[in-house]
Design a protein that fits this description.
putative 2-phosphosulfolactate phosphatase; ten-stranded mixed beta sheet; globular; alpha/beta
């Protein structure tokens, strides 16, 4: 099995085989919490305008997402797992758009299969991949706003790769230390309304969920995220 790590939208476009699109802070952590909170469907889209159009089609839907890290005007939720954890999404369709993560899903069309990646279900991702045994795995770290390398996404890619390969490495301290690097923004007082400290801890809890979210392209070009329990 060949495993490659790449970054950004360019990495998503070049992904082949089974692609894992990684966005730890916070898109794909949010989607896991949404699924666990009872959402019956998650639809990922790249455009805010498209999210509003989708909401018109589905009566039992809510909008979640961000631009510049903040909740979009007219949306029900931001891109915050803390918000999602407090919500009852039973029977709801979550329409989700973010700057980096959902853009990666949309642009990974050359891969044979696409799943999302985060720490909270990293073990499930590794077990899913080991079961399928694809010839190639593309781990794509989407980065901060899909433009700057993000330590958490690259570390998550490294973590998933080590799990697939069966290497016993201690990642706990490295994950915890993200608090002082790429995760420090969650502890800045000016960000507390849209990026609270609890988001950091909820996004860095390894192995919290035993399922993967697989992307399936819709007729309208958007993405359905299908939950597969492991």
């Amino acid at each position: 099995m060949k495993i490659e790590i790449s970054e950004f939208v360019e990495g998503a476009r070049k992904a082949r085989g089974l692609a894992v699109i990684i966005d730890v802070f916070r898109a794909f952590s949010v989607e896991c919490y949404a699924s666990d909170s009872g959402a019956v469907k998650i639809i990922a889209t790249d455009e805010v305008s498209e999210a509003f159009e989708l909401k018109k089609l589905y009566k039992q839907s809510v909008l979640a997402g961000e631009r510049d890290e903040k909740k979009i005007k007219g949306f029900d939720f931001g891109n915050s797992p803390t918000e999602i954890l407090k919500a009852d999404l039973t029977g709801k369709i979550v329409i989700h758009t973010t700057t980096a993560g959902t853009s990666g899903l949309i642009n990974a069309g050359n891969a044979e299969a696409i799943i999302s990646g985060s720490f909270v279900n990293a073990e499930a991702i590794a077990n899913y991949i080991k079961t399928l045994r694809p010839e190639q795995v593309s781990l794509v770290a989407m980065g901060y706003r899909a433009k700057e390398s993000a330590a958490e996404d690259l570390l998550c890619a490294e973590y998933i790769k080590s799990l697939i390969e069966g290497r016993k490495e201690d990642f706990e301290k490295r994950i915890s230390n993200l608090r002082f690097t790429s995760g420090k923004r969650f502890f800045q007082p000016e960000n507390i309304d849209f990026s609270p400290p609890t988001d950091f801890f909820l996004c860095t809890m390894t192995g919290r969920f035993n399922f993967v979210l697989k992307a399936a392209k819709r007729f309208d070009g958007n993405i359905d995220m299908e939950r597969i329990d492991i």
